[in-house]
Each structure stands twice: as structure tokens, then as C-alpha cells.
Amino acid sequence: MIEFPNRLHLARLPTPITRLQRFPLTGSATQIWIKRDELTGTEVSGNKIRKLEFSLAEAQEQGCDTVITCGGLQSNHCRSTAILCTRLGLQVHLVLRGEKPEQPEGNLLMDYLSGAEITYVSQHDWHGHEELVKDLQQDYATAGSKAFYIPIGASDEIGLWGYIAACEELKQDFQSLDMTPDYIVTATGSGGTQGGLIVGIRVFEIPTKVLAFNVCDDAAYFDQKIRRDVTLWQQRYKTDFDVKKLAITTVEGYMGAGYGTASEAVFASIALLARTDGLFLDPVYTGKAFHGMVSEIQKGDDGALPGARNVLFIHTGGLFGVFPQQQNFLFK
């Protein structure tokens, strides 16, 4: 049995699983199930909170009074970190990729309302954001504070625990439903959710495959990133786990023009799911992955999910990211 490190219980768990009833899957008998991780909280919804339960516990263990983390302007992770730090009495400093907008919307608005200190870094200079973080940590130390750094998406060897632990929950879900999916599908942007699921299904002996749809970078990047994170996890926590046997599958082709930019087809899929089943996705993560999954299912055995009878989609949240892109939805 695996031994978990210290953890803060911040999420509302377990989250339910919903079976799609009305979403049209033309020519396919595949049943789609949704793990409703957008219901891990209200303001702090989504997958990030599962990782932050472990990352923020580590920050407290190290005696830190400040947390620094990074992401895009509409980062779900940064919004979740800002709110949770406020609730825990920690200062939070966000380093965000992009230019400061005239009017904050969506996640960024919630960052400000939560009292986060924000530093903006242009896309051109983003390659140096980790050096900036080191400078900020030194500045806080000079001022008598101790700042803990959480990387993008809380995707490192600590955050990996979030979806390893989620697999223990999933195993219980599957026993209750008397159903084990052929595939577990997730969006992947920083690799932490994907990596945690890949490790977790082996740790808890769940006979399924993990499939991820990238919303940035490429499959080679995620293969390298996840292997590095899992290696560091194995070394840090001295776990008996063979990193060489990792089965990392990232399906390309649905990223669109880049991170945060979705195609008309993705917005159409988001609207269709909302209209048929009352479930809401976002155009940055879940919308792309769900659209990709449905497209591949409809290819049958020629697609990325051959023989799929039951597929579980991890709804990782992101609702607040819909509002800054509302102009891309077409209404009659």
C-alpha cells in the first residue's frame, strides 16, 4: 500500500461521475462518463485543487508565509492558488504570461479580488520567468518572509500526488458503478494530471489506459516532462515504481493555433454538450480534449480509442475561462 505525504483537505471529495445521456455520438455505441472534477469546490473548482492539497501542505511544512506560482492570464491554477492561499492566511504572488489588460476578466478578476500580488511578463520574456521567481524569493527573504515556489499547474513531483490519490477514489467509483472504463481521457497542459493518472492506475491496479489530448506543446514534450516528474517523485518519496514502464499516450491534432486558442469546432462542441447534457467545458483545456475524444471515438477502430465501450472523461474545470472568450460562441 502506498504511503501518502502530508495533505491539506481542501477539495470537496469525492466528486461524482455522470453518464452522458443525450450527447450525440453518431455511428458509435461508446458510452461516455464524466468525472465531475469541476465540482471540487465553487471558486476553487477543477483539477488544480487536488494537486494543491499536497503542494500547499509542503509549503506549510517548510514554514513559508508566501507562495509564488506562474501561469497564463487566465490560469485556473493561479486562480485556485490565490484563493486557497487567502483562505490559509498565506500571501500569494502570481507571475502571469502576457500584458496587463485594461479590464481584468474571468480568472484574472478573481486573482485581484483574492488580493494576489501580480507581476506580468511578456510572451517574449517568458523564457526567463523561473529566474524572475528566484529573484522574487530573494526579495521576500530580504523582507523577512519565506516564499515557496509552485511551478505552472502545480505539475511537479509533489503535485503528482493529486491524481495518484484521485485514482484511489476512481477505483472506488468503478466498484460502485460496476464499470471499469477502457480509457480514461484528460486534457494535458503541464502534464501533472496526466502523469498522476498514469502512475495512479498502476499503483491502484486499475485495468484501463490513460489517454491525454495536448492543449499546448507536443507529445514528445509530455513524454519527457512526465518521465522527469515521475523520476523525481520516485526519488523524493522513495517509492518502488519502475519509471521505464510508464505508458504515456498523448494524442495530437486538436491543439488548434496554440494554447488558449480554440477552433470553431471546439466552441461548437462546448455549446452542444451544454445544450444536450447541461455540462459546461472551457475553450482552453476541457473543450479541446472533449472535442478531440469525440472525434477519435467516431473514427472507430481507426481512431485513438479502438474498441472503446466505456470512456471516462476527466472534467478538470475551467468554467471561468469561458467568459473572456464569449465572443467566439455563435448564437442564432
Q: What is Rg?
A: 19 Å
Shape: globular
Going by helix content, strand content and strand pairing, the class is: alpha/beta
Give a count of the beta strands, DSSP E runs of length 2 or more: 10
In what range is the share of β-strand residues?
A: 15-25%
Order of helices and strands: EEHEHEHEHEHEHEHEHHE
How many distinct folded domains?
2
Q: What is the CATH-assigned architecture of the largest domain?
A: 3-Layer(aba) Sandwich
Show unreliable segments. Answer: none
Q: Sheet with the most strands?
A: 6 strands, mixed
Percentage of residues in helical conformation: 25-40%
Concise overview:
This protein is α/β, with parallel strands linked by helices and 332 residues long.
Description:
There is one protein chain. The protein has nine helices and ten strands. The chain is α/β, with parallel strands linked by helices and 332 residues long. It has two domains: 17-47 and 156-328, 3-Layer(aba) Sandwich (Rossmann fold); 48-154, Rossmann fold (3-Layer(aba) Sandwich), CATH 3.40.50. β7 (183-188), α6 and β8 (209-214) form a beta-alpha-beta unit. The longest helix has 19 residues, at 219-237.
Describe the protein's topology:
Elements (H helix, E strand, L loop, with lengths): L16 E3 L11 E5 L12 H14 L4 E7 L3 H13 L2 E7 L8 H8 L3 E5 L7 H14 L4 E4 L10 H17 L5 E6 L3 H12 L5 E6 L4 H19 L12 E2 L12 H14 L8 H12 L12 E5 L18
Parallel strand pairs: 2-10, 3-4, 3-6, 4-5, 7-8, 7-10, 8-9
Antiparallel strand pairs: 1-2
Helix pairs in contact: 1-2, 1-5, 2-3, 5-6, 6-7, 8-9
